[in-house]
Amino acid sequence: MNEYSLTESAKAEIREIWEYIAHDDEDAADHWVIRIIEALDLLARNPRIGHSRRDLTSRPFLFWPVGKYLIVYRPVGEDIEVIAITEGSRDVRNYLRMRS
């Protein structure tokens, strides 16, 4: 079965998303993290369904939206490595550039 791995920063981003939302509503925070995990499972089963965004990066990353969040990942053989999970409203190009 195909799998996904998370970079340390992607793990931290999931925690930060939960903490930010949980400040107001823990059930809503749980809901969003579940939606993200379900999307990661989908991407692991279908590693190439994401979209290339040459306007955001020249690196071989693919992008997948989950509500207002954007999963940034790269296929690695049959699996995927999750690079980032960030808000789509953020300056994603600059965000990815700063992380390299």
From TrEMBL:
<dbReference type="Pfam" id="PF05016">
    <property type="entry name" value="ParE_toxin"/>
</dbReference>
<comment type="similarity">
    <text>Belongs to the RelE toxin family.</text>
</comment>
<dbReference type="InterPro" id="IPR007712">
    <property type="entry name" value="RelE/ParE_toxin"/>
</dbReference>
<protein>
    <submittedName>
        <fullName>Type II toxin-antitoxin system RelE/ParE family toxin</fullName>
    </submittedName>
</protein>
<dbReference type="InterPro" id="IPR035093">
    <property type="entry name" value="RelE/ParE_toxin_dom_sf"/>
</dbReference>
<keyword id="KW-1277">Toxin-antitoxin system</keyword>
<dbReference type="InterPro" id="IPR051803">
    <property type="entry name" value="TA_system_RelE-like_toxin"/>
</dbReference>
